[in-house]
Amino acid sequence: MEDNSEIILFGRPAKQGRWGFVFLGFFINLFMGSNFSWSIFRKPLESAFQIGSTLSGLPYTLFFACFVSNMLISSRFFAQRYSPKIVFITGTFLIGIGWIASSFGTNIGWITVTYGFIAGSGAGIAYGVPIAVTSRWFPGKTGLALGLTLAGYGLSPVLVAPAANALITLYGFQTAFLVIGTAAFFCLLLCSIPLRFPPEEFTKRYAAKHHDTHDNIETKLTPSLLKTERRFQGLYFGYFIAALSGPMAIGIASPAGQELIGLSAASAAAFLPLFAVSNGFGRTMFGWLSDAITPPYASAISFFLILLACIGMALAGTGDLFIFLISFCFFWMTMGGWIAMAPSITSSFFGRRHQTENYGLVFTAYGFGGIIGILLSGAIKDLLGSYRMVFYPMGVLAIIGIFVSFAMSRRSTAKGTKAA
User: Fold this and answer.
1) Among 153, 179, 202, where does a domain finish?
2) pTM for this structure?
3) Axis crossing angle, helix 84-102 with helix 120-137, rounded to the nearest 10
4) How many separate domains does the chain show?
């Protein structure tokens, strides 16, 4: 049996050294979040290939689909058979190949395959690894640790977007793909070196010290059994609503600002870094809240903020810049919050033994919700003539989400009482 006091991580005893995995995960997500900057590439691609916005969006659409599907595949098959380092390196190679191969693209079809399929698949395979590693090393309170780990993904556009824009302006989009892809590949490969799970005894001892009984309650809940759980259905539906509302609002931030508030295109784009910071902050804040007041109550607060933002944008008029900024900061913040809360809730409700597999299944709610939300916002604008109309159904979904959150809280309490 391994003595936990002898475990040294990043030159420190395990209790302190494990925070190294949190900061490592932050930097990993900082590089992996480069796909958030795809909008920077769209206009140059449209100009170079003489295509419209629909075709220039294809690589990112396929990237998103491959990201979600490979996240599920990786968690169900690869993660249970290979070490986290091997899984992450596999994803890193695909990310690097996809970005670098895109620099040789002479048509949108090539870039759709290289960036959308290859890089998207690699991102899906690698994405869950830092989440799983952090969860295992923090068996007591995972929310804050996961929030900090995932904050890098939300903050990535603040750094990558200006760099990509500068490279495209000076050297063209091919060079931008090559430089960003090469930098991401080597940095992610370097970050993969320390990745590992803790000894099982460490997890058991630390969970016992913090009176964490989740692993003793439902350690045998595999994905096949999970689907019949009421709490899983509530979590999945809640995550779906959040993912539906988040990308729906995020995707229309600039055009809604121009139409409803009267902003110029340049002014609307200038606020995107602020929204990205809000997204990163939301991952940390809601991760902490899920530890402090339990995940269901934290999710209820997120839906309440979405509701306030919807009301604000439904009533906003020309010149209401403050309402616009607060509302979209709420939208971006809560979307980031759910990305941090969902793995924590999965671990809290259903145990850690199958956490990687179970979260892969839960994560599909993000994929379905995101794709439907992006398509739905455009359809509502085309049918009803204004982006203002998008916020009414979003507000209704937020109200439903509040009730779903409280329902999850009651079921969680009932399960805990029964287990005790």
Assistant:
1) 202
2) 0.75
3) 150
4) 2
